[in-house]
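Entry: Sulfur reduction protein DsrE
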Amino acid sequence: MSDKKFVFIITHSFDNPDVVAGALQLAVNMKAFDTQLDFFLMDKAVLLAKKGFAKTLIWQNKDQFSPVADLLTTLTEDLDAKFYICASCVKHYELDKAELIPNSEIKPGTFLGEMLLERQGLTF
């Protein structure tokens, strides 16, 4: 187990599913080594927290990554990763009216700041 801690900051979803798939694939690989990591979703990435949305991301160009929906399920259900949703983006993307994925929680940007004081941030 690594003593390092990470926060994956994701800012894309439908606009660049290959970047999302690459980030989630890397996270799954890192979690296999029992690395502590969580996610902070910002901008368009907050849509990933909307239950069922990841299944719509079917136009990946890179075959070497698993589908986004499968990776998200593995991370939330099998590996217990937490997905924090930027509170400033919730209303804009109507997440206040949506069912969210397991292990997700709405948090302010200050929470990300606190995490970055303790963890290494990786932005995708």
